[in-house]
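User: Hey, my collaborator sent me this sequence without any context and asked if I could get a structure. I don't really work with proteins. Can you help?
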Amino acid sequence: MLRLPVAIALLALSISACAREGAPPASSTSSAKPAASAAASQATEPTAVTSESLQATASQETTGEADADERGDVVLERLAALPAEQQLPGGKWKAGANYNPLVPAVPTSVPAGKVEVVEVFWYGCPHCNALEPFLMSWLKNKPEYVEFVRVPVTWGPVHRAHARLFYVLKALGRLDLHQKVFDTIHLQGHMLVSNDEAQTKKMQLDFATANGIKAEDFNKAWDSFSVTSDLQRAEQLTERYQAESVPIIIINGKYKTDLGMAGGSAGELLALINDLAASEKRR
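Assistant: No problem. I've predicted the 3D structure and written it out in structure-token form, which is a compact way to encode the shape of the chain:
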């Protein structure tokens, strides 16, 4: 069990969820929308998370200097000037409204002929938890050419601790426990993190061994070079993706979108992902 002060601090962090510390408040941005409302209505969330806190944290901000904004405008103009066969379905999605170009684009690591779709997430985020069942369903039927990748944010100590757990499970070939981590945090109220690194490791080790992972294997992965490298790359990618809140979706390193931009529902977001991916496949 978490000590009371730690539990209160972590609960406060989860309630302020899904936005990077220091990001503009939702009320000060034109993009503020209850992005996760539709997905959240179909998934169980912690009772401590109120509708007000969800709405306050659901805006998805993009940051950038004036020169980046200007380059973004150029990219939008180029998108509008693409041949008809390379544009998205007429009138359905609009650049700058339903998705934004990433400037500069982020190189992908998928094979030729594939289109990369990245979800930037945090285990402690109620919106990411609500979206997960829809993503899992989509993965069963996604286009064959789509390569799906998850990247955890590493904004602060709690985020980094959860990101390390994700990469440890990945290194051990146990991402079948991905949903169970969400369930442990959001259904059981166990954040799997403490303000003490040794205690955090013990919590996560207990979770792992309770789910069939040998302690020796967990400890080896925890301290491995590959996990450390993955964490460093995740930090670099979330900066390049300009991730100021989660969940966000990156298509082929070129476009960024989220639930709010897509229209507010998981179904609309997945349709937008498919259309953007198909557009990239045609290029």
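In plain terms: Residues 63 and 248 are 14 Å apart (CA to CA). You can pass these tokens on to your collaborator as they are.
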